[in-house]
User: What shape does this take?
Amino acid sequence: MTARPATEKRLLQIVVAIACLVPLSAGATGIWRGAEWMQHGAVSADLDSHFRYMSGIFLGVGFAFVSCIPRIETKGPRLRMLAGFVVLGGLSRLFSLAQLGWPGIGHQFGLAMELGVTPLLVLWQAGLAKRYGTSTVSTASGSIPG
Assistant: This one.
């Protein structure tokens, strides 16, 4: 292994750590403040309950991404699964955009992270894994070298 893959690995780890701040902070804020802070007014108990539940999932996904940072070159299957969840959320947000119009700037930022940044990070990790010789392909019975 040369210094180049090690440097690239460190850079990817830093970028993923920075990206993790989005689900960690948004999830924690959603749990702590509920849906009311989004609308600046009273919300129903059902909406607030659902919002806090989804915020908890968002926070959990953030922690799951954080768990990929150490030895990120070996975390391809986990990273791809988590990214799939995020992209599905982004597609759902895109559906909302088509139905109701553009959301606020924070949600536009989220959409860019979900459908742009996250897939690019997965591609970057896959290339890094190949350079490290740790690329894997998931199968029904486990992972095989790729």
